[in-house]
Amino acid sequence: MIPLVSSLLLNFNHFGFITKSLAVPPPVPTLVHGRTPLHTFLGFSPGQHIVSMSLRDPENGREMPANGNNHVSAYSLQGVRKVTPREWKSYVYSCKPDIVFALSDTPYTEPPYSQKRLTKSNDRSASWLANIIASGPAAADVDISYKPSIFVHMAGSTSIPARKAFAEGLLEKLFGPEAETIKPLQTLDQGVSGYSFDLVPLRLSLGAQPQYSPAPTSTLKATVSPSLSISDSRNELDQPLPFHMDQLPPLLQASLETLPTTKLRLVNTINSPHEILRLISTVGIDIFDARWAQRAGDIGVSLDFTFPAPSSPSTNRLKSRSNGKIDIGHNLYDDSYTHDYSSFSSGHCECHACSPVAPSTRIYHGADDPSYTYEQEPSPLQKRIKASFTRAYIHHLLHTHEMSSHSLLVMHNLSILESFFSSIRLVLSKGDKGEWEREVKRFMDVYDERLEVFDEARDMWREVDLARGKGRLAREKAKFQEESREVVEGAVAL
């Protein structure tokens, strides 16, 4: 996760609970004890990392069995598992994340969905939100003093009326047994710290409805919150979802138009920096996930873009497309980088791949001790920057199927993304709406939004994976047998 709203040196890390935990109860993370069990399990420092937890992986859009009135279906390492609200609350209080995402009845069955199904989805999501808000844990052996910050997934799928109805339901005062559940709170929204949007199910649903194109109405004005007004990886790489970027903002606006602007707004599964800028401008989103930048590293793309966009993009040595725009990065699988000994990006980058820092202390092995060599020991206070890794080196690692290539690329891509958000905050802090709109338009005019570089890199990644990845020996054996059979058949024919 990359926060847009603040420059605080905190890392936002998300944990897909069931996806990464064994399906055999009890889940491993719940066995860790202490004040911050999930931080300890993941190796994160509570003072430097914010850890959030959801049941499902937001990027996993695979079809799965329908949810029930008292359970949510989610993929685990051992297939689909049903999780009840009571179980989820117990897991939350055992792991103690900083932020928890309430269960949501998001359908992952074949779209489109009927009005009856969307109404049921809204009702279930509201009921499960009340369950996680309710004071006290679901089990007696957990810390009752722990109070998580709760994010609610905005339900309603691609129906604007359904999305509005769910948002209005969060603000309605509850009565009777429902009010007793969340007492002393009066509305569900009072127990919520932020609103989240998973774009994958929206894109899937829009993809099944090509005729659907929601247009902003007079009530769907562009709103910006106060902080902004000043899966199997192979399947994920092979089947990128269509963007539907023109249809998404009205859906998000419908969910947010009646809700407070003081609470955080989070979007998962963004596809490009262009989408980020659009959702900031039209919806006022505060936090975006960084999965797309990590996936770029998976397919060998080194990100190389800036905001504001450069005045002379030709100096970036980025490939220019037929529409006159340049790529947002370099496809390092391409043979043009075989002898390119420059760093990953055209400008200065602080990542450990572009600006590796030498250790402040050395480990000596006898003969190299300063008492023998009279070499002056480096000062622990002096930062020593080593030579950067080069595009040619990463090109070599990618074609030899070395995992370190992807690790270096991900480090670099996340650093580029952090710089991107830092620059966005700087422009927004000036409070000049006209300048913001000009810089956004210039970015759109300079950089290719079709992401053709990603498509090319994905194809080359697939070729290398087939040549050197899992199952290579079996494929080579089958190919050899086929060639041998053809030779024998040719000899017999002669």
From TrEMBL:
Swiss-Prot/TrEMBL keywords: Signal
Cleavable signal peptide: 1-23
GO BP term (any one): tRNA modification
TM region(s), chain numbering: none
Pfam families in alphabetical order: TGT (PF01702)
Keyword 4Fe-4S: no
Location of the tRNA-guanine(15) transglycosylase-like domain: 387-442
InterPro entries from the UniProt entry: Queuine_tRNA-ribosyltrfase, TGT-like_sf, tRNA_ribo_trans-like
Coiled coil: none
Keyword Ribosomal protein: no
Protein name (database record): tRNA-guanine(15) transglycosylase-like domain-containing protein
Source species: Agaricus bisporus var. burnettii (strain JB137-S8 / ATCC MYA-4627 / FGSC 10392)
